[in-house]
Amino acid sequence: MKLEDEIKQTRFKDEYQRAMLNIVFTANWLEVGISHVLKPYDISSQQFNVLRILRGSSPKPLNLLDIQERMMDKMSNATRLVEKLRQKGLLTRNQCESNRRKVEIEITDKGKALLTELEPIIDKNHKRLTKKITKEEVSMLNELLDKLRD
User: Fold this and answer.
1) CA–CA distance from 102 to each of 16, 46, 91 (Å)?
2) What ranges do the domains of the chain cover?
3) Residue 2: its pLDDT value, please?
4) Strand ranges (DSSP E) for the chain?
5) How far apart are CA 111 and CA 117, in angstroms?
6) Percent of the chain predicted with pLDDT > 90
7) Which residue among 15, 33, 52, 88 has its CA within the 20 to 30 Å range from the CA of 22?
């Protein structure tokens, strides 16, 4: 569906404004789709992102700053996210023996198992959301979005 129909707006300042609004609207649309899939698992997309970051670094633990630097949503409260995941038994927080100010954060086996269970569901959701565009179009979209952030 066209952006104009989605937001009930027919005029834009120019195509650049339309593109920016389209990017924001589409990002929110994708986020809602992912959140809907994760809701039955009582996990947010930001928490999912933290678990994936930790699994990617495993077996090397990360500190809070490392996690924040790698997060998709840089505005998220990483401290709160990590604590909620710890309470669910999906990660551990341990004080470093050599530097008591440093906290090492690692994904648990339970966290890895959750990611393993979620991956095919997330993949199916991504395919459903992106089935209307070709691999070539996805490549072009990636190039344009990277160029926009340059």
Assistant:
1) 45, 23, 16
2) 43-149
3) 86
4) 91-95, 103-107
5) 10
6) 62
7) 52
At residue 40's C-alpha, the angle toward residues 63 and 138, to 5°, is 70
Q: Minimal CA–CA distance to 90: which of 124, 32, 42?
A: 42
Long-range contacts of 31-39 (CB under 8 A, 24+ apart): 33/125, 33/129, 34/122, 34/125, 37/118, 37/121, 37/122, 37/125, 38/118
Structure tokens at 73: 């949503």
State how far the Cα of 80 lies from the Cα of 86, in Å rounded to an integer.
10
Domain topology for 43-149: Arc Repressor Mutant, subunit A (1.10.10)
The model carries a pTM of 0.85
Residues 57-83 pLDDT 10s: 999 999 998 999 999 887 778 889 999
The pLDDT, as a whole number, for residue 7 is: 84
**Could you read off the pLDDT of 100-121 as tens digits, one per residue?**
778 899 999 999 999 999 999 9
Q: Distance (Å, rounded) from C-alpha 58 to C-alpha 81?
A: 18
Residue 99 to residues 28, 91, 107, Cα–Cα distance (Å): 40, 20, 20
